[in-house]
Write a structure and sequence with these properties.
With 327 residues, the protein is of the alpha/beta class. It is built from 13 helices and 12 strands. Strands 7-6-8-9-10-11-12 form a 7-stranded mixed beta sheet, sandwiched between helices. The chain has a 5-stranded parallel beta sheet with strand order 2-1-3-4-5, with helices on both faces.
Length: 327
């Protein structure tokens, strides 16, 4: 009898072992994804971010869970960041300068990886690029700093450039923007070009900005790096064609959509780097010890079909420097 009781008890204990093992398994980490806009335009870049994660062994849906907060109304941003904090996510990925600032205000302990266009030191996100300190690190594109080079490229492409315009979104202040604008003004003066700043923060204001170009007799346009402009890239391309204004952009996707020329870093590469950093932190690294990453290469992309439609002949030296030519 005692033997049967022992066997029965052993069977019950054996059945309980899988339950104990499951209880001791480490929970799947959760990344809170905080981004402006809507899911549609972010598809290819999210794939690059997931690729970076997978390179560290984290596959979405298996080894890691990603929960998405798309911020279409800026007023909701603080509440969305606070939601991630309340739910104690393991890491926050903050896309854009405002998202990163809000995430930092929401938590000083949850690791935060940012993807921004401005200067994270000037913006108070990190102590330095080499040693960020605190709970934030990530990737910065320093997008505005490339605008003087974009002006130079337009000058090569368009003869007799007397007046040029820069389109910016005034509703998205970016750390280091004043210094970048000053550099742009210096570059314009060095080229003997008059520079006008045009503001646009909505679809209708973009339309109005192009009408203003005609009044200013501007013969070329530089598009500042901003998510609003990226989401309206087809509108911008159509307006540039309608007004016959040679325009340079900051991402290759504008040129793929019919724009003339772009000069800027690969966003897909930068998103992948952010994914690698997220995986590195989930494995135990501290954001304070991971240097802020910056692009090491930029891409020059030219659309010859658009150039021909604008009556432009692309100089051979410029074509020779292009990383990609759309014919």
């Amino acid at each position: 009898m005692r033997r049967r009781e022992f066997i029965a008890g052993l069977g019950g204990a054996t059945a309980a072992w899988p339950m104990v093992a499951r209880a001791q398994e480490k929970p799947v980490p959760v990344i809170g994804f905080l981004s402006p806009g809507s899911p549609g335009p972010g598809g290819p870049l999210l794939a690059a971010f997931r690729q970076g994660l997978s390179e560290n062994g984290y596959t979405e849906g298996q080894k890691v869970t990603i929960e998405y907060h798309w911020v279409e109304e800026p007023a909701r941003l603080p509440a969305m960041a606070a939601d991630f904090v309340d739910r104690k996510v393991d890491l926050i990925l903050a896309i854009s300068d405002p998202m990163a600032r809000t995430a930092k205000s929401a938590s000083s302990t949850i690791p935060i990886v940012f993807f921004i266009g401005g200067d994270p030191v000037a913006g108070g996100l990190v102590a330095s690029l080499a040693r960020p300190g605190g709970n934030l690190t990530g990737v910065t594109l320093f997008g505005g700093e490339l605008n003087p080079k974009r002006l130079e490229l337009l000058s090569e492409l368009v003869s007799q450039v007397g007046v040029i315009a820069l389109l910016v979104n005034p509703n998205v202040p970016r750390a280091g923007a004043a210094a970048a604008l000053s550099s742009m003004q210096d570059a314009a003066r060095a080229k003997g070009v008059q520079l006008h700043i045009l503001n646009a923060a909505s679809e209708s204001e973009i339309d109005a900005a192009f009408a203003r170009l005609v009044e200013l007799h501007a013969v070329a346009l530089v598009i500042d790096n901003d998510l609003l402009f990226f989401s309206r890239r087809e509108q911008l391309g159509a307006l540039a064609a309608r007004y016959s204004v040679p325009t340079i952009y900051y991402r290759r996707e504008f040129v793929a959509a019919g724009g003339l020329i772009s000069y800027g870093p690969s966003y897909a590469t930068a998103y992948r780097q952010a994914g690698i950093y997220a995986g590195t932190i989930l494995k135990g690294a501290k954001p304070a010890d991971l240097p802020v990453l910056q692009p090491t290469q930029v891409e020059l992309v030219i659309n010859l079909r658009t150039a021909r439609a604008l009556g432009l002949s692309v100089p051979l030296p410029l074509l020779g420097r292009a990383d990609d030519v759309i014919e």
